[in-house]
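Can you please make up a whole protein chain along with its backbone structure tokens because I've never seen that pairing?
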Amino acid sequence: MVKKTFSLQKNVSRFIDNGQLRRNLRFSMDTMKQTRAALFSDKSEFETLRKLGQSIRQRSLDKLPELLVQLEEKCTANGIRVHWAETVDDANQIVLDVINQHGSSRLVKGKSMVSEEMHLNSFLADHGVDPIETDLGEFIIQLAGETPSHIIVPAIHKNKAEIADLFHKKIPDTPYTEEVEELNAIARKILRQKFFEAEIGISGVNMAVAETGTLCLVENEGNGRMCTTLPPVHIAVMGLEKVVEKLVDVPPLMRLLTGSATGQPITTYVNMITSPRKPGEKDGPREIHLIILDNKRSKILADPQLRQTLQCIRCGTCLSHCPVYTRIGGHAYGFVYPGPIGTILTPQIEGLKNTNDLINASSLCNACEEVCPVKIPIPDLIRRLRNESMSNKGSVEGAGTKRALSEMSAWKAWKLINRHAVLNRLSGKAAAAFGKQLKGIGPLKAWTSCRTLPKFARKSMLDLADENGVSDE
């Protein structure tokens, strides 16, 4: 679902002036960075682990076509039904078909960024199905009618007073309270009944192991386990890049994921799902469906440089360290994936034209690359996409959409001036004479509104050399 009205500039102006939002983000971001730094205090050990994580992800992508085939074979042998979806529309329809096959309308969901990418909740609502988000953060933003602001902590942009007010207004007979324990109890009471009634559970997938056909999910609240165990039908959705080759690849990636995301050595719950309920087992779903979504990922994989985008394990640490994200929040980015990872992933999925100037939502300070647990060179990929936006021969959809005749003409003029000595000296004299007037002309007016215009020397170095009798030989 493309947001054609998206404007980064307007969004930034709106969110950066929200003082409460900035205070909420600053408190949360500082806490997340501190816990992560404490866990990975040994820099040498962490760098070794990062290199291992990078090699695992790169090996998985190098072998991705065969690993996907192996995953399907293993999952099918285990009793998991595998579905392939080229687009989000295909994936949504598969989910709806499974729901209709069982005549179900009571559905609970665990946290899943792919389901957000699919805009699954709104799709199901349009077809008479009311999905209930069971992750506390997702539950909060669902009540608020919002989308996640962060990959890991969806409601990170809200403080407890805002959540207390939301619960008081949206949940009948709920008194206003800012006590965290009471707020948790209110949500727990509602969700417990939803778990009991649910006929279908939907979840994401953190990793899928081709060797064994195992779906790995990590969480801290237990809601993911309830969604995948209590309902008789479990639907798991995943991007096709989430495959890893072997079971031994999981522990190092798990440590990088949980450590980078929440500063934990391991999450409270780690779910390894390999099959539906077997004869004699007392719990688990009777039926499991795995939906593997492409949505332009195959095209990304085909590019030797841009495929590094798919190494991402969705830990969100690049968001927490990004000076842009920490000031404007996730909603300013206008799409599902915010922060540095969204800056490179979204234009490749939605197209450069549709994502406007999203690729400029970066200061290129390199903080994201320095902390990325699988060493994605995010700044290099941002520069690549910026170049693509100006090129008429790029490989990304919408390449050249920011290519302007005025800018191209200006660069050609610059090239001409700097290739001819006479023109170069004349331009220097013109800059010295009329430089101050440049401040209010065309695009320079906006540029100089937040920058100091350079002071042009009244005489060039060549002029000074001539005056002082310095030979150019």
Observations:
- The beta strands are 80-85, 106-109, 130-133, 200-203, 207-209, 214-219, 233-239, 243-244, 269-273, 287-293.
- The first helix runs from residue 8 to 16.
- The chain has a mean pLDDT of 93.
